[in-house]
Design a protein that fits this description.
Number of strands of chain B: 8
Strand content of chain A: under 5%
Helix content of chain B: 55-70%
Largest sheet of chain B: 3 strands, antiparallel
Distance between the termini of chain B: 56 Å
Largest sheet of chain A: none
Radius of gyration of chain A: 66 Å
Largest interface: A-B, 36 and 56 residues
Order of helices and strands of chain A: HH
Strand content of chain B: 5-15%
Number of domains of chain B: 2
Oligomer: heterodimer
Number of helices of chain B: 11
Amino acid sequence: MSLLVPDSGLLFWMLISFGVVFFILAKFAFPMITKSVEERKNYVETSLSDARQAKETLARVEEDTKAIIAEANKEQGRVLNEAASQREKIIAAAKDEASEQARKTLEDAREQIQREKDEAMLSVRREMASLSCDIAEKVLREKLSDQLSPEIKDYGCRSTGCKICQGIAGLRP
Amino acid sequence: MRRALIIIAMLLAGCVFFPTRSFASPSEEGEPINVQHIIFEHMLDSYSWHITKIGEKDVVIYLPVILYSKTSGWHVFSSRRLHENGGSYEGFYPAPEDGPHAYKLMEKMSDGSMVRPIDLSLTKMSLALLINGAILLLIFLPAARWYRKHRGDKTAVPTKYVSFVEMIVAMVEDGIIKPCVGENYRKFSPYLLTAFFFIFTCNLMSLLPIFPGGVGVTANLSITLFLALCTFIAVNVFGTKEYWKEIIWPDVPTWLKAPIPIMPFIEFIGIFTKPIALMIRLFANMLGGHMAMLVLTVLIFIGFSVGTTMGSSMTFLSVLFNIFMYALELLVAYIQAYVFTLLSAVFIGSAQIYHHKK
């Protein structure tokens, strides 16, 4: 029975202890804790969203970088190709020029040789003419020595194709 | 786990095979065992705090008795005086056990009638309340100081202790208060948090078998009455107009409220039944658990009053069941604090309505 009868003295002490605890905690502890927890929660949330944004930006930047690198690679390939073709062209041109030069040199040499050959032939021919003149003179002289006067036996002509000699020779029978 | 079980089993076996003589002493001396007296002595308030008995010497904290009598004015004395004088002092006598004020001091008037004076004594339960309040302050104020020191510093990392306090506070606030009270929860959260941790601390302390604990304050109707009263005030004083309109003129067919106000009457009763239910629920649950544990403990003495074998086996059963009860009571300590806070939050939330929902 006495268990079910509230006691005023105990109520009084409960009022004091619960009241004091409630007052102190409600004024100094709980609002502070809950406010800080909430603030931290907000901070964490904003930090997370910031991080997510940063990640997205980073991904975009990475993509851009990749695109730039790919572009650069393509450009590099193009430049290399161009250089290679340029080189081929230059080499081909150089080869052409070299062969042209060689051909010209060869031709020059050939011409030179021809000229020298002609000259040589000419001098040989001249020699041959003078020789044949000499021979003809000698032969004539021998043949005519008994027909012609001995005074004009020898005109002393030594030149080839001498008109006088030929005239004389014509005169002689 | 297995080792713990083995130790418990060995202890239990020790209880059975080596019963100490002191256990058997009541029956040997022929004292009858007054179960009701033992249980009531533990459950009721007292003017002194009997801690333990070392040998033949009682270790008792004598608390101040503060009485105000309409005829003889204030009386302040130590309860040691009561102990020395066989329970009575300065004309005050303890009330009989079966009366409504068991063991409380009554003033004997000149005509021989017993009158209860205004009793503001710092009793065992009052002291336990003060101790529990101090424990609460010791738990929360250091954490709050950390927050005050790191105000504005959002990147400060809380210490383990502060994180723990933060966790339990957030658990109650996010788990109970926010969903139950609704958008106005900020105004009520300090009260509900204090109520939760006060009840929880009191429940746990009442399970502690030695000095600062062991007093079942939440198993006392005065305490639960006070807490229920606080919720009653929080619900009705801060209730919105809409809430009162719902009580006086609820949204029901007119014949239910016009000539005879049936529904308003029921709603009006509801204002009081809600906190009364809160009060009774906490009180009965805590009282029930403590009584069950006390009865199981008293079983040992009853067993030994029958015989040593009976006593030994009763000891075995009693310890076994008491371990179970302790585990259960730990759970109940949390659940009852949780339920009280939850229902308080729901009642407060139901009084915080602004627009009637169709």
